[in-house]
């Protein structure tokens, strides 16, 4: 009864589970039947169906991010595979482990015009860390062991730093329906037991290298620690230890996971974007050394500041073997696991305490924060205020997912340091506005409560993602900042080009999302006041199901209010520095 | 004022227009600003905005299909590009000319973690017929000429057989806003006039090769001409001429464009799928020779028949240099433009007239058609009946777009020969259920009236595509066959696997599309009877705007009724053959 297929698939799936893969996102298809049934029949594998493969892949990405573990993806042959591509690109750049399993026609049905047969070899190009054309199903001892080892290796390669997607392509012949019963699992465990365990070490430096680096830094008073997107449990404690040792303030991107949490916040500077907007002010606050962790932060003023001055010694620490250094000003690349780097470096001396330099940064940060928090008293639906409100409204242990384009910039400006345990995630590998709904919902399947803040174009782009909430009864709150189009362009030079501005850049869609939210059985709210907003958020995060809260805002007003606040920040800091200089 | 950029972009766009590219589908973005403005400012270029790049690319594909001309696509850097991939794959396999223009970060912002920068080199792999990394904008005479030649060449390469997508990647530096005025066009026409004209010849055989082939065929009485997906004006007349010369019936797939039109229909056989389902019957009706044009037809019984008997001489004619021969039974591949092949071959002899063989095929086809048309009297919402109704309801010059999975199979079975001028299109390159709404709407932008028949999963997959109808006031009728899930699996062996059948294969979504149709300002109708269906279709095709007609059908009933009719066809033909054999 189709034994070759059954045992081969069972061995593969069983080993995936052994390797710690407990979630698979599956899209329906015929060719993928063997693996779909294999995963559905395995007791320890949780399967999540999703019709649209593009959304499915982002759903898996969000889940893998939230879980910090590889998640499997499965689809049939043809353009289904190509629909995975945007999420694969994002996973590659944001270092998220995915195990992509694609069914394929067998060799004799390839490149001969057979239906739904496309060339899937290396279809994701460099974006798959590892591509394997799997052998046709066989059940010899050797090939069952092969199936197991490939599953274990897929999980290992996806997990090795830098984490990322791997792609296994399965040629499958008819008949496609395996006969998997309880006995199958026992049989496969007996005949082809799990055989390999994978242990992954960490990249570190030699004692001497750490000592030299410590010596060098110990003579420099003015330093910054800059932390971009980095989500490793324990990093907050490690990097604040580093800050205390050298007396360097930490410029912390919202995705550094340093603005929230139970670690000490004394060293965290969150308003550097607003502070550094004014070039003259930035000149007064320049460091001599920068130690940078994680991806390049969202802040453009920070990038420009680092780019302007070649005399700043910039040390980029990357545990993932990358070259995330768009300023071309780095003087040193250090390939070392980030926590290891922090913990080892502090062992060579004692804490330096709060210097004048550190105090100066704390003062200007406090000043900037006070100004920005004035937005709290704004009655109109100013987009930036959402993050000020959320810092208060979000329950402990929340996951805050932030959309690209404007929301992540507003989070950068307005999501201030707080003592809650809030994880902040975003798709910052390629910064796309695509797949954000699905990524957030994927995260919500393994981490609750989840709140997503997203713009209207990005929400529209992945409306299909909402189906997962309906199919899998997910609990999530989505806040849509609807400024009817591409808000970010009002901040860019394109805004001065009037002729076709609305057609090419503003791109208003005039969509009323209430309809589509209803279709997916979600609760829809339009918040027209901040009181309503607060009420709806509280109601949503404490109740089951999908909740969508829409705020209709104005692109023009929005850019004006941002600029107004940023100007005050610059003015007040300039005054402060002038006084201090006297 | 940014002259280098302005002139370079203007020269490129102007030459695209000169090369016959009159439509560009643009998605909003910052990096793509120069080209977007260049295209928007050119009087002879029609621009179509679409937010979701996946839908945008399918929209361009549909438009290029309907126009039979290359259409340009433009998006910004990052995952936007990756979203084009499914449509690029489809365009490659279905031989549709697309000119894909992607904006990219300049060299110094690549692979260094700069935002929205991904590696776009050869990102579509083999699916782009031609990839070019364009030079940075310069306005020397030489580089303006370069820009012009690249545009002309892109259109040429996309158009050369086999037609397909080409990809030009533009590195662009800030400032990104060109200053294009009426003077710009005059200046660019004066300083860098259009310089190259492209003439494309056709592949043909030598006289001697045609003569030999004619000789060979003239001795064979039992032949089929098999026509799959092929959409060339004039082919119908050419191939029916061939049929008359040799007395071979034409087995015509719905996408062969042979079932409708003003050409002679005497030779067209449209019920071969139902006829050949019974292997014993097929044995009685086997040809000695098959001349095959276009893609492999949809019909599985036809493929199986061709595959079973190696003694059938199968000649595959392909004007596009492909190898569309999944049966492995072809004895001859002929690389020659299809119409040329037909027209030249008939010159060597006179018409053979209607032989016994041809008459036999006409008789069984008539018989099968009569049985299948009994579905016309079906009161319940049987899916197959839709195409019987449409053959009557569709106005002259309609474009009928058919979704994949079940609709194309039902069109194959139930869309009978008629004398209207109806073009039938579908995405049969990779047979995906993705992007079908957008492909149809793209076609509707250049060809009306358009009617799309699509299943619920496929409709859901590309709901985003509906935005184009709203943004661009398109006129289109969409008929959604809503059987709440994947109807095709009920016809496959998976149907016998009960445990997780609905979860993995049936995949009901329980979506009520009325909501989403409203969001896109469409008219929604649910047809619960055939009278209503007829009324709604007539209303829709004669009125402006987007119209969606939903038929809620049953997967189980559907498979039963199909099988019932097919069985009668087999029985009646078996009786007919038995009588005839006496």
From TrEMBL, chains A, B:
Domain Thiamine pyrophosphate enzyme TPP-binding: 436-550
Pfam families named in the record: TPP_enzyme_C, TPP_enzyme_M_2, TPP_enzyme_N
This protein's pathway: Quinol/quinone metabolism; 1,4-dihydroxy-2-naphthoate biosynthesis; 1,4-dihydroxy-2-naphthoate from chorismate: step 2/7; Quinol/quinone metabolism; menaquinone biosynthesis
Residue stretches making up the Thiamine pyrophosphate enzyme N-terminal TPP-binding domain: 10-122
One GO process term, biological-process aspect: menaquinone biosynthetic process
SUPFAM superfamilies: DHS-like NAD/FAD-binding domain, Thiamin diphosphate-binding fold (THDP-binding)
Residue span, Menaquinone biosynthesis protein MenD middle domain: 221-402
Coiled coil region boundaries: none
Necessary cofactors: thiamine diphosphate; Mg(2+); Mn(2+)
HAMAP family assigned: MenD
Function as written in the Swiss-Prot or TrEMBL entry: Catalyzes the thiamine diphosphate-dependent decarboxylation of 2-oxoglutarate and the subsequent addition of the resulting succinic semialdehyde-thiamine pyrophosphate anion to isochorismate to yield 2-succinyl-5-enolpyruvyl-6-hydroxy-3-cyclohexene-1-carboxylate (SEPHCHC).
Subunit record text: Homodimer.
PANTHER family: 2-SUCCINYL-5-ENOLPYRUVYL-6-HYDROXY-3-CYCLOHEXENE-1-CARBOXYLATE SYNTHASE, PROTEIN PHYLLO, CHLOROPLASTIC
Protein name from the UniProt record: 2-succinyl-5-enolpyruvyl-6-hydroxy-3-cyclohexene-1-carboxylate synthase
Organism: Anoxybacteroides voinovskiense
Name of the gene encoding the protein in the UniProt record: menD
């Amino acid at each position: 009864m189709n034994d070759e297929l059954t045992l081969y698939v069972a061995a593969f799936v069983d080993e995936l589970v052994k390797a710690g893969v407990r979630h698979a996102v599956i899209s329906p298809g015929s060719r993928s039947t063997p693996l779909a049934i294999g995963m559905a029949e395995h007791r320890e594998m949780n399967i999540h169906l999703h019709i649209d493969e593009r959304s499915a892949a982002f759903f898996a990405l969000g889940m893998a991010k939230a879980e910090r573990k590889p998640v499997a993806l499965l689809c049939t042959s043809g353009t289904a595979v190509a629909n995975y591509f945007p999420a694969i690109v994002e996973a590659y750049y944001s270092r998220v482990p995915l195990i992509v399993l694609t069914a394929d026609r067998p060799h004799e049905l390839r490149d001969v015009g057979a239906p739904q047969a496309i060339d899937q070899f290396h279809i994701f190009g460099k974006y798959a860390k590892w591509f394997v054309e799997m052998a046709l199903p066989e059940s010899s001892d050797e090939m069952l062991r092969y199936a197991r080892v490939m599953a274990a290796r897929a999980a290992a390669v996806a997990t090795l730093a830098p984490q990322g997607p791997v792609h296994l392509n399965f040629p499958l012949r008819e008949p496609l329906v395996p006969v998997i019963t309880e006995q199958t699992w026992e049989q496969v465990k007996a005949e082809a037991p799990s055989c390999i365990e994978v242990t992954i070490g960490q990249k570190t430096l030699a004692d001497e290298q750490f000592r030299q680096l410590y010596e060098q830094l110990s003579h420099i008073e003015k330093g910054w620690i800059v932390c971009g997107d980095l989500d490793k449990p324990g990093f907050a404690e490690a990097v604040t230890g580093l800050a205390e040792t050298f007396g360097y303030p930490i410029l912390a991107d919202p995705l550094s996971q340093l603005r929230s949490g139970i670690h000490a916040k004394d060293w965290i500077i969150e308003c550097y974007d607003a502070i550094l907007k004014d070039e003259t002010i930035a000149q007064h606050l320049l460091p001599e050394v920068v130690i940078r962790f994680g991806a390049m932060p969202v802040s453009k003023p920070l990038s420009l500041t680092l780019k302007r001055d070649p005399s700043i010694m910039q040390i980029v620490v990357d545990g993932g073997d990358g070259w995330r250094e768009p300023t071309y000003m780095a003087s040193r690349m250090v390939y070392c696991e980030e926590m290891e780097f922090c913990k080892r470096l502090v062992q060579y001396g004692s804490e330096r305490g709060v210097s004048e330099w550190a105090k100066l940064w704390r003062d200007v940060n406090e000043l900037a924060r006070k100004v920005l928090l004035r937005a709290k008293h704004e009655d109109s639906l100013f987009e930036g205020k959402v993050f000020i409100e959320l810092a208060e409204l979000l329950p402990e242990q929340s996951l805050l997912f932030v959309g690209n384009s404007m929301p992540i910039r507003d989070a950068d400006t307005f999501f201030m340091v707080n003592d809650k345990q809030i994880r902040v995630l975003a798709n910052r590998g390629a910064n796309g506005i695509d797949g954000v709904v699905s990524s957030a919902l994927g995260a919500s399947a393994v981490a609750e409560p989840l709140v997503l803040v997203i713009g209207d174009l990005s929400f529209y782009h992945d409306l299909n993602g909402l189906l997962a909430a309906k199919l899998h009864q997910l609990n999530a709150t989505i806040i849509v900042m609807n400024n009817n189009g591409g808000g970010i362009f009002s901040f860019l030079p394109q805004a001065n080009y009037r002729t076709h501005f609305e057609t090419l850049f503003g791109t208003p869609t005039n969509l009323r999302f209430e309809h589509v939210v209803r279709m997916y059985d979600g609760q829809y709210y339009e918040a027209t006041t901040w009181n309503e907003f607060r009420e709806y958020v509280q109601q949503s995060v404490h109740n089951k199901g999908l909740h969508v809260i829409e705020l209709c805002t104005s692109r023009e007003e929005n850019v004006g209010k941002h600029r107004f606040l940023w100007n005050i920040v610059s003015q007040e800091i300039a005054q402060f520095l002038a006084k201090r200089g006297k």
